[in-house]
Structure formats: C-alpha cells, structure tokens
## 1
Amino acid sequence: MNQFTTRQIEIMEAATNRISKFGIQNLTIKTLAEDIGLSEPALYRHFKSKNEILLSLLEYFKTEMKTRIESIVFKPTDTAGDKLRAIFNSQLQTFTNKPAIVSVIFAESIFHFDESLSNKVSEIMDMMQVYVNTNIEEGQKNGAYNKLIGSSTLTTIIIGGMRMTVLKWKLSKHKSNLVKDGKTVLKGILKMIEK
C-alpha cells in the first residue's frame, strides 16, 4: 500500500485541498471527482472509497514523516535538546505548510467507527512517541536531561503539550503561529529537564 500512482497522489492532493477549505466532513467522492474533473466511476478505479483515500493520505504522511525526520542532519555538537527541537520544528513546519493533514490526524472522533483509520492514526502517534522517547532516553543516559521523571512519562508530557498546541492552532483556524507556539512550549519543557 506504499507505492501510489501519480493519479492517486493527485487525488490525495485534491482531497487534502478540499479538507483544508471545507473540512473533512465535506469530503465526498462526488465533490472530489468534480474538483479534479474526473467522473465518479473513474475515481473509483483509483480508490474504492472515501475511507481508502483517507487511509492512503495517512499512510503517505506517515512515510513522508519517517523519511523527513530520519534525514535531519545533526551536528556533532548538537545537544539532545537541539535534536528534539529539530524534530518538532520539522513536524510543526510540515503542519503549517499542509494544515489539512492535521484535520485528518485529529479527526479521530469520526474515525472510531473505522478501525483501519484509527489504527493508522495510532501508527503515526506511536512513531512520534518512539522518536521522542529515544531522544529522552539518550539525553538522560548522557546527562543532558535530569532523571527526575521517567522517559515514557516525559514523552507523554512533551507530546501532550505539542498536541494541545497543534489543536489550539487548528481551532484558531490556523491564525496563530504554530511553529512559534510549539517552540515556546518545548522551550518551557526543556527548561525543566535540561541540566
């Protein structure tokens, strides 16, 4: 399910644009087909359903996120905190550039009816958790972070704080500065844990 055709990517981009403009509840095969000038039957040749489009969008984002985060180049002088800031900066910048993906990831209220969609969102969250937890463990091991709080609890605090920041940005209809607000939250948390 990882290799998408050019047409499928085009359909996913159009779905993303529609979600950005009108919200996820206004994504239908009919409106999507109109957006890209395809007939509904033609669109169904590429995706069996709206859910399959959403699932593909999430998979596409997950693959992109993994590649993007794992290709961040760190300097030998970078601290654990610098690395964590770089990871979140990359993530928040991507959300700012593609706000619709946030609408899809944060739509779990409508996904609880669809296990495959909620599982895909969980995979994305789990991946982020691994990146953060690995950073915390390394930082605690090499003395960059204090050990007052266990790594998994700290991971939950950091991701929870960032999630809240993203949600507030989403609810403000993207009027706030997500990257700036995220940096401020992370800076506050790092102040508490960096030695």
## 2
Amino acid sequence: MKKFNLLAYVAIFAMVLTSVSCDSQKSANLKTGADSVSFLIGSSYGKGLVAQIKTYPGGIDNVDALIDGFVKAAKGDTLLLGMSDAEAQAYVNSYFQTAMVKESETTLEEGRKFLEENKGKAGVITTESGLQYKVITEGTGEKPTVQDTVIVHYTGKLLDGTKFDSSVDRGQPFRTTLDGGIIQGWSEGVPLMPKGSKYIFWIPTELAYGMNPPSPAIKQNSVLEFEVELLDIAKRK
C-alpha cells in the first residue's frame, strides 16, 4: 500500500484554505476537506492536460469541449457523441493521423523556406549535406573526429524559438560519442569545431529526427537549431 506524507497533505490543505476563492468554493460546492482535495486534484490534472494537448496535431484547444467530455464520462455516459468506446477511439486515431500528415507537410515546407532564406545571411555556412552553421566563438584547440567522445554544452530550439532541451539549463555538460546514438547533423557538425568553440547549427529534418521525433515537443519534419559549445574532447582507446 502506498504511504502518504502527512506533512505534504497538511501543506495541501493550507494551500486550499488560502488559495481557493469563495466563488470557486461555492461553484464547486466545496464543503469538506475531501471536496477541496478533489478540486485541487482536478485542477492539477486540468493544468497538465491543457499543457499536453497543446502539443497535439490539429489544433486541439477547445477547453470547454474537453471539460464537457470529461464530465460526461465521469458521470457514466458510455456513449459519447453516440459512439461506443471502440468507435470513439477509431475516430480520434483517424483525426490525429490526418492532422499529423497535414502538420508534417506544413512543417517541412516552413523548414525548407527558412533554410533557403537563412543560407544567404551573413556568417552562415551551408555544407554539401544542407547542414547550416555560424561561428559564434572560434576555439584554438584540436577538432574531434567521429571516433572521439566529446563533452559539450548545448541548447536545442525549434524555429519559433521554443526551447526543447538544454544541458545549460540542467547545469550538466553532455558527453557523447559522435559515431552513433546522436542525429546525423551532430555527427557532421561537431567535428567542424575546434575545442573551445561555440557554433549555432541549423539542422535540416533529413539530418535530424525526420518523421520520428523523440518527443511531442518536436513536430515531425522539424528543422532544429542547436547552440553547441565544445568544452573538451576525450580520445577513445
């Protein structure tokens, strides 16, 4: 049986008493401590779910419809929109499949347009593969080979500026080999950097994740921007 932290629950109840407004309590009929906890759990799930659906393809942002469906299901409505569970799941799957195809095509076109415009900007170098980079700081050390292990700091962003990963934010440098386990854009780009350098890379989808991104935060066919600082090189024996 799961053990619960009494002090944590005391803190939750204190938060309920101080943060839940009278109007909210009245509308939700919060008469007991259990009612208040139910309200907070629902609020927590709601915040998390709203954040999650923003990553779904197809513009899923009708919170009122989401709440309506949740309430009906919670109260035992077994035929939502006249569909059985199997029919509802098939409908959702079909919608997302169509939306994903359309979104990936749009993302691909936007990425190609960006790279075409970006390659003409001052300081941007385009390699034969289509990888683009710009030198922020040019180091004076040796360059790694694909057989080496490198220690880097990096920040990854989408073209709209959304940050999806950062060793800098974690406060822990990233250690990786260059001949496997990373995207092709890194395998090609990092060996261009002398130790001590900082570059910005713009990686075409063909050299990034393509149609198989590792998380919903990255759309299919996304061009990725990485700011990479090469801290050290570890020769592999």
